[in-house]
């Protein structure tokens, strides 16, 4: 046997290593998952902060609104009384709920609510 025949030859472009299933996931799948999570977080962040407080239609005049931050122990009843003292509280609560797409009366401290300005 000659020495030329016993030399190992590699195919052109072979890097000398192969990725197993876990390696392919780390180099391809994991970055794709991270990018998808970041894209979803950006969509939620910009979608929530980019929306107008109330959708205006052509038939109804645009009402002035202001934003308030919910404090610990605040209820919709208290907020309606502070922001619209001259209106019936149940109507003020319904307007606040409509402006903020609220399903119930659960509020969280630090939550920002849109309320009708000037009562």
CATH first level of the largest domain: Alpha Beta
State the shape: rod-shaped
Q: Whole-Å distance between the termini?
A: 100 Å
Uncertain ranges: none
Q: Mean pLDDT score, rounded? A: 77
Number of strands: 2
The appropriate CATH architecture of the largest domain is: Roll
Strand % is 5-15%
CATH fold category name of the largest domain:
Membrane-bound Lytic Murein Transglycosylase D, Chain A
The name of the CATH superfamily of the largest domain reads LysM domain
Task: Describe the model.
By secondary structure, the chain is mainly α. Helices cover 41% and strands 8% of the residues. It has helices at residues 21-49, 76-83, 89-100, and strands at residues 65-69, 112-116. The protein has a two-stranded antiparallel sheet. α2 (76-83) crosses α3 (89-100). It is rod-shaped, with a radius of gyration of 30 Å. It starts with 20 loop residues before the first helix and ends with a strand. The model has no long low-confidence stretch (mean pLDDT 77). The chain crosses the membrane at residues 25-48. Pfam families: LysM (PF01476). Residues 66-115 form the LysM domain.
């Amino acid at each position: 046997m000659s020495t030329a025949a016993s030399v190992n030859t590699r195919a052109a472009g072979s890097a000398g290593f192969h990725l197993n299933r876990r390696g392919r996931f780390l180099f391809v799948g994991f970055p794709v998952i991270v990018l998808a999570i970041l894209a979803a977080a950006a969509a939620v962040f910009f979608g929530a902060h980019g929306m107008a407080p109330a959708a205006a239609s052509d038939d109804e005049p645009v009402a002035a609104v202001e934003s308030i931050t919910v404090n610990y122990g605040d209820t919709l009843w208290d907020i309606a009384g502070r922001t619209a003292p001259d209106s019936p509280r149940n109507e003020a609560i319904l307007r606040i709920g409509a402006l903020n797409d609220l399903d119930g009366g659960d509020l969280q401290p630090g939550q920002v609510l849109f309320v009708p300005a000037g009562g």
